[in-house]
Specification:
With 252 residues, the protein is of the alpha/beta class. It has a single domain, classed as Nucleoside phosphorylase domain (Rossmann fold, 3-Layer(aba) Sandwich). Helix content is 30%, strand content 29%. Strands 1, 2, 3, 4, 5, 6, 7, 8, 9, 10, 11, 12 and 13 form a 13-stranded mixed sheet that branches. A hairpin with a 2-residue loop joins strand 4 and strand 5.
Length: 252
Amino acid sequence: MRSGGRWIGSGPTDMSRVAIVAALEREVRGLVKQWRVIEKEHAGRRFRFFENDEVVLVCGGVGAEAARRAAEAVIAIYAPGVVYSVGFAGALDARLRVGEVMQPQSVVNAGDGSTVRLDSGEGVLVSFGSVASPAQKAKLRESFAAQAVDMEAAAVARAAEARGVEFAVLKVISDEFDFSFPAMERFVDSDGRFSEARFALYAAVRPWLWVQVARLARNSGRASRALCESVGKIDPTRIPATTDSRETVIRR
């Protein structure tokens, strides 16, 4: 495992077998804390990459646009054989519990109904444009027959497909079907960065949110540990395949 100093620059294109795109560093902090950290520029934006032998990870931010930019950057700079979308997901199936890891066979874009199918995995993950409430979760489950929802996987899949790179997904349940999030969107900037400090100040003066926020913190910690354990087992010598198809899901 490589670790050590921090280097900043654009440099020549590097090579990694596996690239991983996550949303927030707190989701994967336990995994990358000893990895080498490098900042590089792509398309006028700076990205922070975590390197470990043949694996590179980037935290692009919350949402589809942030994920797409990060995926495009890591593909352009590192030329990986496969790009993984990893991170937190919400349960659409009431039987799923916090900390359960999901490798879906299909990823659906809720915005346009397009579907990416993988050669392995089980179930359906749907990518939605915002943090889903319990009512929205029920509608997504009904419309797409999905078991979980995230915000980034479909965008990473599209970036990988556009550049001829294999795509894979590994998600962990961080909120169960009936969990209601506090209002989060106001704390995410245009680059997809979530301000934990602003959110903490917001919650600190609203006692009615304390129980909900405490549950969110416990869930996030449990989900992060499970995610880091699973991502750490990814084998760089095995490149999963994406089936060559894009379909349209008919909403009921």
